[in-house]
């Protein structure tokens, strides 16, 4: 059957929102990338194939239809007000993390000290903030892109620097899944640019792995956080040894 333009566009938005490429989708569907591209360009896919793509995206046909009727792109960033609401209520921030990582209600209630009413209340708040869409059965559809970014200098970034950074580095990085690399040196402007690009490549790879593993059960996944940064910087303990610049 020929699938409507609106449904195809909705599928494309959902793919972009989850950072899923045609190549990755083809791998999940056990098809060639060329066949997937042709299927989307010709809008020639069976209902069974449509359902398979929805399974990969973890959305139902009714959710796809709703997305088609909305016709809007996923948010690449939250607003200042949305970030403020999240940092003011840690449980709400946790609810967003779990929703974005596709935790189902039964898994949340099994592993976290929420009642069903409390969990529902958190999802309702996220829905009212416009960050998720609350669906039947307390399923959540993220209105953000999978790889959305916190606002530079915004409430969440400030909250991390002031409250979470110390907690992040409090324990030793000596576990099998840990990694801490402290590097310092002098680079050319071009070297700094290339290093920034490499960090952005790591970010994209992390996003791709999140998408790949999103359909696994919570017991098969480990909550993981990366802090990637670079800046011109000298340890404060070295500052006393710097020679004052001649400003004359």
Keywords, please?
single chain; 248 residues; mainly alpha; 434 Repressor (Amino-terminal Domain); two-stranded parallel sheet; two-stranded antiparallel sheet; 7% strand; globular
Protein architecture, described:
It comes from Lysobacter hankyongensis. Among the domains are: about 5-70, 434 Repressor (Amino-terminal Domain), CATH 1.10.260.40; about 75-145. The strands form two sheets. The protein has a two-stranded parallel sheet with strand order 1-4. The protein has a two-stranded antiparallel sheet with strand order 2-3. By secondary structure, it is mainly alpha-helical. The chain is built from twelve helices and four strands; from the N terminus they run αααααβααααβββααα. It has helices at about 5-15, 20-30, 35-40, 45-55, 60-70, 80-85, 90-100, 105-110, 115-130, 155-170, 190-215, 235-240, and strands at about 75, 130-135, 140, 145-150.
Break the fold down into its secondary structure elements and pairings:
Layout: H1 5-17, H2 22-29, H3 33-42, H4 47-57, H5 61-70, E1 75-77, H6 80-87, H7 90-100, H8 105-111, H9 116-128, E2 132-135, E3 139-142, E4 144-149, H10 155-168, H11 189-213, H12 236-239
Parallel strand pairs: 1-4
Antiparallel strand pairs: 2-3
Protein name: HTH cro/C1-type domain-containing protein
Domain HTH cro/C1-type: 11-64
Pfam family, one: HTH_26
Q: Choose one word for the global shape.
A: globular
Strand content: 5-15%
**What is the terminal-to-terminal distance?**
78 Å
SSE order, one letter for each helix or strand: HHHHHEHHHHEEEHHH
Number of helices, counting only DSSP H or I runs of 4 residues or more: 12
- Low-pLDDT runs: none
Strand order of the largest sheet: 1-4
- Main β-sheet, in a few words? 2 strands, parallel
Mean pLDDT: 84
Percent of residues in helical segments?
A: 40-55%
Q: What class would the helix/strand composition place it in?
A: mainly alpha
| Count of distinct strands | 4
What is the gyration radius calculated from CA atoms?
22 Å
